[in-house]
Amino acid sequence: MKSFVSEKLQVCNAKTLAGCAPNQIDFIKKHKDSSTEELQALKKEKESALKDMKKERTAAQAELREKEKTWSRTERNMNKAIGLIKQLEKMSKSGKKEHTGEL
Predict the structure, then answer these.
(1) Is 46 exposed, middle or buried (0-12, 13-18, 19+ CB in 10 A)?
(2) CA distance 55 to 92
(3) Residue 27 reports pLDDT greater than 90
(4) Helix/strand/coil percent split, the chain, to 5
(5) Do 56 and 26 share a domain, yes or no?
(6) Which DSSP category does 33 fall into?
(7) Which of 3, 39, 51, 75 has its CA 20 to 30 A from that of 68?
(8) 49 and 17 co-located in one domain
(9) Residue 99: what pLDDT?
């Protein structure tokens, strides 16, 4: 359990770079000399991008739910139609036998 926590849940330390992934280290190195104002602007930019991404994901999930409903309804209707076609096939075969028997 301790190894899982140390491997999976360790937070990147920007000061020591302990627990940081390579992309995090690159990000830290790129922005470590930025001013407070630049960092605040970058944070706002990232927060805005995150908010937009969440809206986009929510919209995509809603669209997928609607498609799932449509697909389920269509699948149900197709299965019902196939069942009716099978019944009609049986009726057709039995009708031909009766008709053929009379000749």
Answers:
(1) exposed
(2) 55
(3) yes
(4) 80, 0, 20
(5) no
(6) T
(7) 51
(8) no
(9) 53
